[in-house]
Amino acid sequence: MTDTIFAQASARGRAGVAVIRISGPRAFATLEALTGPRPADRTALLRTIRAPDGEMVDHALALCFPGPRSFTGEDVAELHVHGGPAVCAAVLHLLSQCPGNRLAEAGEFTRRALLNGRLDLAQVEGLGDMLAAETEAQRRQAARLMTGSLSAQAGRWREALLLALAYVEASIDFVDDSVPDDVHIQVVRQLADLEADLRTALAGSAIAERVREGFEIALVGAPNVGKSTLLNALAGRDAAITSSVAGTTRDVIEVKMDLRGLPVTLLDMAGLRESSDLIEQIGVQKARGRAERADLRLFLVDAVEDLGMLGVGWQEGDLLVGAKRDLVRSPAGLSVSGTTGEGISEVLDALAMQLETRAGTATGVSHRRQADAIARAADAVGRARAMIDSGLPEVGSVELRNAARALDFLLGKVDVETILDTVFQSFCLGK
Question: Is 94 within a domain?
Fold first, then answer.
């Protein structure tokens, strides 16, 4: 028999209201033990929570959601109690005293929703992204994944696979019957279209992953050009030490910010120059490597000719920005003063435009696990098409089944037990 689990589903700490969730075969019996007769399904009623000796613990709203039409697919009860820590602790203690109940593990409510078919694995990952979303772009992307956009697309891919597989199996079973050439050509063409569609989804997965995890923007320039001052101005706080002494910054300083709804990490690093100081050499080497790996580089220079001396390659979409706008006239198209704030809004607009253009190419494939599954499906479809076109339908049939299994893995229908702990480890107890 499945345990009945419980946990606080809302955030810990003082609040006006806290939500405590119960799920499992004894959910309703547990609710009645604490509050008396349960309310009608999906109806909130005010109830008094009492200890076994009759002492009043709290007044709460009680709700019941019968399975399978609940979040977990099981009977689910909720208590909306006053959000003080002592109240929550007292109610959770009472729940732990009820026979057959135990505290939920991290993500266990969502795990049960997956196992009971209320969510597939891609939707679970979308829910996790929604809980972690800090910017509007992350929220929108997570919402699409959580509400099943990728799941629906995977369903269409799988349907196309099964149609092709039906043709291939028929050609094998009825080998003595001639299959019209135009049907054969049509199936090969449909598989080519399917492979192209899968690879298109893959092409935007890297950008979707960056939207989920955040874009990195490296501030690149010579020592004392004003990178740390610019970082502080862009971040709106003193995140980095500024000094007139060249070479103050030795390590990489990371500052997270919301740039027009997009998640961004600004990277301030050592000024790039040749130095006899061993520690500064390490800092410069580290800075160049991190700058090359960043999604976008903002080159802050006193003069355009300084750019070639920095030792960091220019990549498409990088920005060239003149430094110390309040003191010197820069030949660069954009210029900024971190001290006075002149040009800050123009630089933010230019950065946002670049990242919004990239984010516009993102697909619904925002996790590496999802991309790996789709890549396996695309490769198998490509091999199947080649085999069928070469007159080897038996081999093609095997590859089409491999593609279908990859899509099943994408949605968590097969072979996922080994990765479930990783997926759920970031969830809170109440999810």
Answer: yes
DSSP designation for 75: -
Same domain for 343 and 226, yes or no, is: yes
Residues ≥6 apart with Cβ < 8 Å to 347: 234, 298, 319, 321, 334, 336
Cβ of 312: how many Cβ atoms within 10 Å? 21
Sign, CA torsion 275/276/279/285: positive
Which tokens belong to 364?
A: 């619904």
Q: Give the DSSP letter string of 375-392.
A: HHHHHHHHHHHHHHHTT-
- The strand order across the sheet containing 334-335 reads 253-259, 262-268, 215-220, 296-301, 319-322, 334-335
Q: How far apart are CA 393 and CA 406, in angstroms?
A: 20
Q: Alpha-carbon distance 20 to 81, whole Å?
A: 8
Same domain, 66 and 109: yes
Cα four-point dihedral sign 35, 39, 42, 48: negative
Residue 53, phi-psi category: left (phi > 0), alpha (psi -120 to 50), beta (remainder): alpha
Q: Is the pLDDT higher at 131 or at 419?
A: 131
| Mean pLDDT in residue range 386-409 | 90
SS3 content of the chain, % helix, strand, coil (to 5): 50, 15, 35
Cβ-contact 155, 111 below 8 angstroms: no
Is the same domain home to 349 and 370?
Answer: no
133 and 172 inside one domain: yes
User: Looking at the predicted structure, is the pLDDT value of residue 297 above 70?
Assistant: yes
- Whether residue 426 is contained in a domain is answered as no
Segments forming the whole domain that contains residue 107 = 4-119
Q: What percent of the chain has pLDDT over 70?
A: 83
Mapped onto helix, strand or coil, the DSSP state of residue 259 is: strand
pLDDT in tens, 141-197: 999 999 999 999 999 999 999 888 888 887 776 555 555 566 678 888 999 999 999
Q: Is residue 48 part of a domain?
A: yes
Question: Helices marked H in 174-241 — which ranges?
Answer: 181-203, 205-213, 227-235
CATH of the domain at 312: 3.40.50.300
224: phi > 0 → left, psi -120 to 50 → alpha, else beta; which?
Answer: left
244 plus 350 within the same structural domain:
yes
Residue 417 lies in a domain: no
